Input
Amino acid sequence: MANIKSAKKRILTDKKRAARNTAVKSGIKTATKKVRAAIEAGDKNAAQAALLNATSVIDKAETKGIIKKGNASRRVSRLAKAVNAI
Output
């Protein structure tokens, strides 16, 4: 356990940030799964709507610094490619 006041504060803020980051990453995975499920069902309209939502979630995570720029663009690109292949 930390003894210095600033180190104690750092531990608390790190826990809050980790929880927030975990929630956002979980949201990315959920949005991605919805796109994949719509693709499996062959429903192009649902897949496109889910893709818009997933793109938004991924871009917000990138803006917040939770995932890196290349990671975000790769995820969006792969999802878009899969939707267009329907």
Q: What stands out?
A: The chain has a mean pLDDT of 96. The first helix runs from residue 5 to 41.
